[in-house]
Input
Amino acid sequence: MNKDYTYCVGFGYFDQPELCKNCRRNIPYGKPVPDEVLWWTSVQYDPKTGKCPLHEPKTDNQ
Output
C-alpha cells in the first residue's frame, strides 16, 4: 500500500457504491488495515452526482 495516499472508509456502511468499491483509497470498516500510519480523510463521495474528488481506481495488480 502506498503511503502517499489519503484513505477513507467509503460512503455507506453496508452498501457502498461501485465508485468506492473500486477505489484504492477505500478501506471499509471491518477490513484489516496495514500496520503503517494511514492518513484518513472524511468521505467526499457525493451521492447526488455519483462522483468523488479523491477517487482513484484500482488496477489489476492491486
In short: The chain has one helix and two strands. The mean pLDDT is 87. The beta strands are 6-7, 39-40.
